[in-house]
What does this fold into?
Amino acid sequence: MRDDLDSLIVQMQEVAREQIAKADVKIRMLNQLMSEADQKKRELEALLGQSPPPKPPAPTRSIPPLHEKVYHLHDGGKSPDDISRELTMEIGEVEMILGLRHLQR
It folds into this structure.
């Protein structure tokens, strides 16, 4: 029974990681599309001879505290295995967070 529960927990964590990764990809894609739409709008306004209203500052994307800890430890030379032990996380979760960092650059 315990093994079944452990297996189910692992499966649930994997599904959660996959869904988070998919959501991050979609967010990045939406941000890119919004940026392109803003650029097209500026081009159209320039062609029509209109001056656009002042642009509000772009919202900053905050990094979750857990991700910051993982990045800090990794930048300090720790391996994903060391980070997972220190933060009591699954190694796959640490690797996923580090992988997302590369996608966001």
About this structure: The chain has a mean pLDDT of 86.
